[in-house]
Amino acid sequence: MIIMLLSALCYACRKDKPSEEEEKGKIVFRFVHLVDGQAVVYDTMKYTNTAGNHYMITDMQYFISDVVLHASDGSKKMINEWQDIYYVDTYIPSTFEWQVYDAIPPGHYDSISFTFGINKEKNKNGLFVNPPEVNMFWPDFLGGGFHYLKLNGRWKTQAATLLPFNFHTGIGADTIGPGQVVFVHNYFNVNLKNSSFTVNKGRNTVIEIVMNIESWFHTPHVWDWDSIGGAIMENQSAMLWARENGFDVFTIGEKTEEP
């Protein structure tokens, strides 16, 4: 009888003790896509870029990776326990919300950073073997691996002809001599301004990551499809412009807390 009573008490103690996950919090990232401050409208010729090109967007797919949470005490937490590369696809609305697997230590975090695309060490053939991610494959003659971004649409030329554009970024190829090709990795780091947030134990912190699509097409380089053309995968100079224009594409939206 005494042994049974002690066992019951020990079980009650274990049951009352919070789990490690209950002592920590969770993060949910929600991806929002805007043009000129408004939710993007697909398949509609309603946008004009800084160069004066009239354009529409049909679809978009991209990767972000190596998300780092920068704590107020100077420490860093990289999200990688289950998934260190995340895929967003406008054809798959469920990808607009990333419920991060990692349990996050409670506390205040000053900022968020991530890699747009996939870094050199990880971006290899075979990284993904199933759709939809495998459909982001990048040609071997351009270095292999996977796209960072597919942004597709149409623009109206000065002759009022509708032509497709494939604003695709990945590994670039520079010819430096006869038969000599150097591969250029065009991923880049994003440091989100005004992205401080607090994680409370047992709660979900929901953070919107906003892609401002028009920002791909201006500052520091004004994007003119009439001169650049619609396909840039084999044009490293154009992909360099895209990479450099990406510095202000992402901003922080709403930050909320949920049970």
What does this protein look like?
The chain is mainly β and 259 residues long. It has one domain (25-258). Helix content is 13%, strand content 42%. It has 4 helices and 16 strands. The protein has helices spanning 2-16, 20-23, 225-228, 236-245; strands at residues 26-35, 38-39, 47-48, 54-71, 76-78, 85-89, 97-99, 107-116, 149-156, 162-169, 171-177, 180-185, 188-192, 197-199, 204-212, 250-258. The strands form 3 sheets. Strands 3, 4, 5, 6, 8, 9, 10, 13 and 14 form a 9-stranded antiparallel sheet that branches. Strands 1, 2, 7, 15 and 16 form a 5-stranded mixed sheet that branches. A hairpin with a 2-residue loop joins strand 11 (171-177) and strand 12 (180-185). The longest helix has 15 residues, at 2-16. It starts with a helix and ends with a strand.
What is the average per-residue confidence, as pLDDT, rounded to a whole number? 92
Number of structural domains: 1
- Unreliable spans are 1-15
Q: Given the C-alpha coordinates, what overall shape results?
A: globular
**What is the share of helical residues?**
10-25%
Major sheet characteristics:
9 strands, antiparallel
Please count the helical segments. Answer: 4
Distance between the termini: 41 Å
Q: What is the N-to-C succession of helices and strands? A: HHEEEEEEEEEEEEEEEHHE
Strand content: 35-45%
So what's the oligomer here?
A: single chain
